[in-house]
Design a protein that fits this description.
By secondary structure, the protein is an alpha+beta fold. The chain is built from eleven helices and 15 strands. Helices cover 30% and strands 19% of the residues.
């Protein structure tokens, strides 16, 4: 099925949590693309009973232990439940790489291979887009690859194969346990006085009210998994490095959803100015235009903003009305309207019941 259908299916599973979910996901694991495997692990690790089912699937061979990324392994090995911790230790003792340095040395020749950037772009689309954005494609979970200062093949190779060697604080993983017993795993993408927004490994964002956080701790490791040397050949890694090394050398494509500011808006019938989502410019980290709904989504940071260019023939007073939807857990953040850089209206986002109403 297309990505949108798969995304809707995962969202439905997360909401409804039918009891047969772990077995069904384990059965189709072999056919899942990388991004869906990441989402599957996040889903199964979010509940204690589903975590146990995941371990059972690994023990039975339905899911290979070496296909569990380092971040998920670390999460299981540090579990509060001694039984889960012991089972994970037995499963991953042989799957863990004891010395990433030896692995890097064995792959050092990749840096001298001549890669094909076009082929590397295909590799990027297959394994990197869940967490990285490049040329308008992907999710901005990890670092901006076009802004890297060191694009040498050696540096890129190390970053790909040994992501935990050097981690910026803002890309550290956190495990959050909610008062309802859910476990959320990811980066702290944004925070306000009332909530934290966690960016998960599949690119999705979840806002958690502070009063629903029971515990929060850093795992000390990167959200980016280890083990790419197991799923990519040396020529594929060389192609990927060639592609990443060329990012930023040309003018990047505008982020998804950005509309040219030349699309000016004038008053319509009765002097009403209709500021449609499709006629604005979006700036921020993840905010984007959603054409299926003619709406703006993924407002997760105070830096996110939508801008319209108005053409008015005379000054006057206007009544401002705006339509939005927001779930209870994402409510409570501030909104502000500026005209000409000057704040004219502000308030707090109230819940509408869900993002669909």
């Amino acid at each position: 099925p297309p990505p949108a259908v798969r995304e809707a299916a995962f969202a439905a599973l997360e909401r409804a949590r039918p009891p047969g979910t772990p077995a069904a996901l384990a059965k189709c694991w072999g056919a899942l693309p990388p991004a869906d495997r990441t989402r599957t692990l996040a889903l199964l690790l979010g509940r204690d009973d589903w975590t146990s089912a995941l371990l059972s699937a690994i023990e039975s061979g339905d899911i290979a232990a070496n296909q569990i990324d380092a971040a998920s392994r670390a999460r299981l090995l540090a579990a509060k439940d001694p039984a889960v911790k012991d089972r994970a230790a037995k499963l991953f003792s042989s799957a863990s790489d004891a010395d990433r340095g030896e692995m890097l040395a064995a792959h050092a020749d990749i840096a001298s291979l001549k890669g094909d950037p076009a082929a590397g772009k295909t590799v990027f689309a297959a394994v990197c887009v869940a967490c990285h954005l490049a040329e308008g494609t992907g999710n901005p979970v990890g670092p901006d690859l076009a802004a890297l200062t060191d694009r040498s093949p050696d540096s890129l190779l190390t970053a790909i194969l040994d992501p935990n060697r050097a981690i910026e604080d803002k890309y550290l993983n956190y495990t959050i346990t909610t008062t309802s017993g859910d476990t959320v795993f990811g980066l702290v993408a944004d925070e306000s006085a009332n909530s934290l927004t966690i960016r998960q490994a599949d690119g999705s964002a979840r806002a958690i009210p502070r009063n629903e956080i029971a515990a929060m701790a850093s795992t000390g490791i990167s959200l980016m998994p280890e083990g790419f040397e197991k799923i990519l050949t040396k020529p594929q890694l060389a192609d990927l490095i060639a592609y990443l090394g060329g990012l930023g050398s040309a003018t990047p494509a505008p982020p998804k959803g950005n509309i040219d500011m030349a699309a000016r808006v004038s008053p319509g019938k009765g002097g009403v100015v209709e500021l449609r989502a499709s006629r604005c410019r979006l700036d921020g980290e993840r905010i984007e235009y959603m054409p299926d709904y003619d709406a703006i989504g993924w407002w997760t940071s105070e830096r996110d903003r939508a801008q319209w260019t108005l053409v008015l023939d005379r000054p006057g007073k206007y009544q401002v009305e705006w339509e939005y939807s927001v779930s209870p857990e994402a409510a409570g953040n501030a909104w502000m309207i500026e005209i000409g850089g000057k704040e004219v209206l502000s308030g707090t986002v109230a819940s509408t019941g869900s993002w669909e109403t």
